[in-house]
Amino acid sequence: MKQFNKVFLTFFFLGFATTLSAQMIEQGKPWLDTDGVMVNAHGGGILKYNDTYYWYGEFKRSGKRGNMAMDGVSCYSSKDLATWKNEGLALKMIANTNSLLQPGCILERPKVIYNKKTKKFVMWFHHELKGKGYDAALTGLAVSDHPEGPFKYLKSIRPNKGVWPQNFPDSLKNLSFTIPTDRNAEWHKKVIEGILVQRDFNKGQMARDMTLFVDDDGTAYHIHSSEDNQTLHISKLTDDYLDFTDEYWRVKPGGSNEAPALFKYQNKYYLFTSGTTGWAPNPGRSFVADKIYGPYKNIGNPVRGSQEDIKTTFHSQSTYILPVNKGTETKFIFMGDRWMPDNPIDGCYIWLPITFENNIPVIRWEDPFRLMP
Ligand code: DGJ
């Protein structure tokens, strides 16, 4: 009898512990995959395909140069968002060739969407060329028949070459500007007018921090920091998601937004961003619009908490907002990175529920966070 009780209790507690860990995440702690290794998928995004979530992210290394892309894009799968199986590298760097996707380049914020018509998984990512710092400002494209890859690298481009933004006034198109050498008030005024769009008109627009968004009608959008990180561009992708159409819009010119993450709730588009302070955290920002391309209205810092939380977005920077369906309801999870530039592989993650207060999305600290109530 005693033995039976012991066995029963052991199973009871083991069962309880498993259920608990399968539903809870602990903020900013190392999250271990099913092999007991820390999840290495930074600046990531999540795709739900059938009943599985796929988390794609930057595979970092240790040491000061650990932010360079030496390996590729990692992929993890999960049914419950808390237990993650390592699916290996979905996209691998291409060594010993003339490919632009060389180990040692920069590959950031990969996002994957599924195209129902072509049945292809499409990955876009911020790509910088080896040894060129952040000057190239390209967006890279890779495609696969399977969610976990292998993804085939297709190209890296400066988008929207030779086309004006949809919301660019005709009166400014043929003006000849001189770019002020100092980043002073005059420079900022001209940036707002579009001097950098004009500078990059023939070459293609800069594309740095990015995300993807698929609207209810299946149209996909590529949202990225452009114009020396001064202005966000929202671009419509082609039906197969493999290219840019000629339609794009400037959002918050001169606003210096990066780390964009976008979600749709009750027919409104909510855009979360951060300021531009490198790897250091800064106050989060949020905007709302009736149309995906704006105009976006500033609805302030979404963080509710201590002064420190508000100033640093809980020591994190936005990367993605994940919709999770619960019955007929959709909940949204804010995903942020805690960057560790001195040892990037040690960077941890913050995932927090987004709630609506007075019709405005807000993020409050919740630790542990119960993902699937
Ligand atoms: C902030 C961006 O959001 C990151 O993705 C990365 O590009 C760093 N800047 C580099 O300093």
Break the fold down into its secondary structure elements and pairings.
Blueprint: H1 2-23, E1 24-25, E2 42-49, E3 52-58, E4 72-78, E5 85-92, E6 106-115, E7 120-128, E8 138-144, E9 152-157, H2 170-173, H3 185-193, H4 195-199, E10 210-214, E11 220-226, E12 231-237, E13 244-251, E14 258-265, E15 268-274, E16 285-289, E17 297-300, E18 303-304, H5 307-312, E19 317-326, E20 329-338, E21 348-357, E22 360-364, E23 369-370
Parallel strand pairs: 18-22
Antiparallel strand pairs: 1-23, 2-3, 3-4, 4-5, 6-7, 7-8, 8-9, 10-11, 11-12, 12-13, 14-15, 15-16, 16-17, 19-20, 20-21, 21-22
The structure holds (2R,3S,4R,5S)-2-(hydroxymethyl)piperidine-3,4,5-triol.
Structure report:
By secondary structure, the chain is mainly beta. It has a domain of 127 residues: Tachylectin-2, Chain A. 12% of the residues lie in helices and 41% in strands. The protein contains five helices and 23 strands. The protein has a five-stranded mixed sheet. Strand 16 and strand 17 form a beta hairpin. The chain is globular, with a radius of gyration of 21 Å. The structure holds (2R,3S,4R,5S)-2-(hydroxymethyl)piperidine-3,4,5-triol. (2R,3S,4R,5S)-2-(hydroxymethyl)piperidine-3,4,5-triol binds next to strand 6 and strand 14.
